[in-house]
Amino acid sequence: MIRPQPLRPGDRIAILSPASVINPDYVDGAVRTIASLGYEPVVMPHTLGRSGSYSGTADERLADLTAALTDPSVRAIICSRGGYGAVHLLQSLSALPIEDDPKWLAGFSDISALHALMASKGIMSIHSSMTKQLAEGADSKAVKELFSIMTGDPSTLSWDSTPLAPNHPGTATGRLRGGNMAVLEGLAGTPFDNYPAGSLLFIEDVGEPIYKVERMLYRLRLSGVLSRINGLIAGRFTEYEPDRNYGSMEAMIAHMTAGLDIPIAFNAPVGHIGADNQPLLHGAEACLRVTPEGATLSF
From CA 240, how far away is CA 252, in angstroms rounded? Predict the structure, then answer.
């Protein structure tokens, strides 16, 4: 996997909206934060647009992302938000030779589709917070870690376990793959549905009932994905109702993975949790160390 070149002071960072409409205040705030860190923010033409629930037509959103990916002066791309719509762009983007000049791409949720695209090209990308969190300033741990990764520093993320499900202790290495489960499920059977043997899989979601996430995990089990990964990182699953079968999402995931002899860590600070959503370097070779009390991920 190719790691984009580290950012340097003064580098141009594009902000764009590949999916849903964004609050302009978040973009304005992100611009201020990026500039305060010594970089040049570039707001792409359709970032603040609207076409129904999208930030622009598919052609407009594609034009912004194509321009940013192929402009040699742009060294990083921060997506304004997720929502829905990035999948519209994958087929056209896959034809671009973006591996010739790899650059950083950051975002999460619906942007998991773009991380899958980057991985198909052999390029690392960053599963991270977006403009809403950047607008709050440069002092949060998540923002500091995002820019630390983009400037080439190694990263270590540690967290406490949850009483809702027990960790499965152990140590494993592998390339980080994953993201939002519903988005990745929508890519099943496509060229972007790729979990190489030996991967460390991380998952998160928001607003999905437990039975739907269970169904997604069954697809991963039946297709052989769960049997060939080296470790599993369960991020936060938010805005769902407990059910009578399992109670919690974590309990269901523990049940679905009970036969796997791999490290499994729960309660990772990754997902729809606001400013606490910590960045992960998608595609990076990483080491996962899990104890009953918590976990550490280094990449």
Answer: 13
